[in-house]
Amino acid sequence: MTGPRLRHTLAQLPAYAAGRPPRGESDLPPYKLSSNENPHEPLPGVLAAITAAASATNRYPDPMSTDLVAALAKRHDVPSSHIALGTGSVGLLQQVVQITAGPGDEVLFAWRSFEAYPIMTIIAGATAVQVPLRADESHDLDAMADAITDRTRLIFVCTPNNPTGAIVRQDDLDRFLDRVPDDVLVVVDEAYVEFVRDDAAVRGIDTYRDRPNVAVLRTFSKAYGLAGIRVGFAIAHPPVALALRQTQVPFGVSTIAQAAAIASLDAEAALLERVAHLVSERDRVEAAMFDQGWRLPASQANFVWLRLGDRIDEFVEACEEVNLSVRRYGDDGVRVTIGEVTANDRFLGVVGAYAPATHR
To answer: What are the C-alpha distances in Å from 317 to residues 24, 188, 266, 346, 350?
Structure first.
């Protein structure tokens, strides 16, 4: 017996490698800097909302997430019909591929970028077209525009880019979109938008308003600290938003997730304070690394990206030895989340020995 016949595309599927906790090689307190999680507990009022919602978990959640959609529509000044929800922005990412691309079609994105892009593309049976980043770790939008063919159905633009932290500039995106055919959907993935402080960066929702072929992805997992609950949203024009709702997993966004997201939106003052703290820590870490000899492209996310060449294994192991976990991306580099102050200080104590200036 050979068992059930499964799709041959599964053999091509790269596995999604989630960030892991430290292996416990030290007696030091462990810190997980491998998953871009918010080190703060949920925002004020969120735990109470979760507790109240938990009492109704014997009932199915509102399949339309009516209250959360209304809150998001008000917050972002868009019609409710332009919003679709999913299990984190990655759930919506899969739905975006499902509604646009299949066998014979192409999905275009920069590389290296969010590793779920090629996974979801292959699952759909479409072809992933990866365009290398520029030397400054940013999207090469000219090369991406040149790579568009009559088979291109979907383009992802991740800004700030995961895992490099580089932004796409609004003026560059505008020029790029002018070259994209109107029947190709462009998804601006803004999972880390709350951490952006560069005025030149893309404004995804402003861009979507004027362009019917642009959609925006956002999440509550990062700045809002709801990674364990799984809720994200898309803002898109009605044909795309409707298609996303048609392909969503029924009852995928739980009652608890809906309540937690609404409470998080209500706690904006505390959110802004926490994000400001993380941005300050990011800037402090980057400044300290500069003093160590690192010359990194500025990150506008809640992590930093290191190109380490043939020293990746040694660096990852050095972090594990002091109970830090970091996120390796093959031989390309390592992403390190901005975490608690003590975690960041411990990381700085390790990374200085690997600065290029110290090994010339």
So the answer is: 12, 35, 42, 14, 10
